[in-house]
Amino acid sequence: MAPRPVVSFDCYRTLIDFDLNRATLPIVRDRLDEVGVDHEVFLDNLRVMRFQGVVQPYRRYREIVRDSLENCMLLHGIEYREEDYDRLIAAAERFPVFPDVPDALRKLKERYDIAILTNSDDDLIPYHLETIGVPFDHVVTAQQAGAYKPRRQAFEKLFEVLPQSRDQITHAAQGWDYDIMPTKDLGIARRVWVNRYDLKGSDAYQPYDEIRDLSELPALLGM
Q1: For the domain that residue 177 is a member of, what is the CATH number?
Q2: What is the pLDDT along the chain (223 residues), one digit of tens a residue?
Q3: What does pTM read for this prediction?
Q4: Residue 1 lies in a domain
Q5: Cα 148 to Cα 125: distance, rounded to the nearest angstrom
Q6: Are 123 and 76 in contact (CB under 8 A)?
Q7: What is the span of the domain harbouring residue 33?
Q8: Rounded Cα–Cα distance for residues 16 and 7 (Å)
């Protein structure tokens, strides 16, 4: 019997309210203030360093989080302590699911398989799968792919794992630069931008659908 169509998802900031900058600030705020470093400048630098980490040759996500934090603190003349990383990872493991997600996933499972392609480690994603509370048919991590989105290698690993052909795949994600842009020419059936933060897209990457959160996805897919 032919497999059902599948909806694949990014996890962090699509399903899980995963905000490392928000979790970082309470850890470093006092030290930033001591040397007069603007909070937003520091957090913007940190975000760029994490992105640089995922587009370089593969390392575990935990290492990227640790090294980007240490390097950003060094850049701004702030003392790094190993407990800073420990606190950040502990906070990341507890990030909550967006409230619109569980019901939408349960509805989709009436007609679709559901899958995750995540820029995560094999030993980090289980915390968030438990938080979501809805079983997935397939979970593919960057660790399994040996590469992070937006690299094509990450998506090719998803296609390798899924029994569905590309014309049976809908990919839904919040990440414009990590998911929507790089999937334009991959031949999948449909791309859905979950634009939770009211950002501006680009017609250069059409066709894609746009929704505000996952509650709109079942109706978009005709359910």
Answers
A1: 3.40.50.1000
A2: 778 999 999 999 999 999 999 999 999 999 999 999 999 999 999 999 999 999 999 999 999 999 999 999 999 999 999 999 999 999 999 999 999 999 999 999 999 999 999 999 999 999 999 999 999 999 999 999 999 999 999 999 999 999 999 999 999 999 999 999 999 999 999 999 999 999 999 999 999 999 999 999 999 999 9
A3: 0.94
A4: no
A5: 14
A6: no
A7: 20-93
A8: 16
